[in-house]
Amino acid sequence: xxxxxxxxxxxxxxLFSLLKVRKHYLSALLTLEAMVITALVFSLFLAxxxxxxxxxxxxxxxxxxxxxxxxxAVLISYIKxxxxxxxxx
Length: 89
Hints:
The model has no long low-confidence stretch (mean pLDDT about 80). Helices cover about 80% and strands about 0% of the residues. The chain has helices at about 1-20, 25-50, 55-80. It is mainly alpha-helical. It has one domain (about 1-80): Orthogonal Bundle (Helix Hairpins). It has three helices and no strands. It comes from Megalophaedusa toshiyukii. Keywords: Membrane, Mitochondrion, Transmembrane, Transmembrane helix.
């Protein structure tokens, strides 16, 4: 129970820091990836408690990796286009 509460607090803290990050895309992407990894750890914890199928966790891990790669590719193309990763506006 304590572990679940810690994970919920971690996600809330990461969400707050995501709202605070307003200058760089890279910081926002890192915060989003930390939130997704926290969700992965939470689902791993729930699956180990309930004895659920482990293939779902591998599928979720694959989605996390693809999302991180896509976010990094978009960031690199944006930096090539604009010259920096500052959020304007």
